[in-house]
Amino acid sequence: MLIITLLNLYLYVVLASMVLTWLPVNGITRALAALVHSLTEPALGPIRKVLPQGGGVDWSPTVLYIGVSLLIYLIPS
């Protein structure tokens, strides 16, 4: 199904947002981070508002990843 394929692709984007936080900022990572941010921030922003601060760690990408994975699992194929 197309929706499952798109959600799986989105999981890679969310994973990229997690990995990009570990990389030093340079020209390439800055451009990639801007693209990934524009794709993930509409979903991550509301999650950040609800989640309590976790010792300086942003848990919202993890919550989003788990939520999208659960949604993929629940969609009948």
The N- and C-terminal alpha carbons lie at a distance of 7 Å
SSE arrangement, N to C: HHH
Q: What is the overall shape?
A: globular
Structural class: mainly alpha
Low-confidence stretches: none
Count of DSSP strands? 0
Kindly give the count of domains: 1
Per DSSP, the total helix count is 3
Major sheet summary line:
none
Rounded radius of gyration (Å):
13 Å
Roughly what fraction of the amino acids lie in strands?
A: under 5%
Oligomeric nature of the chains: single chain
Mean pLDDT: 93
What percentage of residues falls in helices of 4 or more residues? over 70%
Write the layout of secondary structure elements.
Blueprint: H1 2-20, H2 27-50, H3 60-74
Summary of the model, kept short:
75% of the residues lie in helices and 0% in strands.
Could you characterize what this model shows?
- The protein has 77 residues and is mostly helical.
- The protein has one domain.
- The protein has three helices and no strands.
- The chain has helices at residues 2-20, 27-50, 60-74.
- The mean pLDDT is 93.
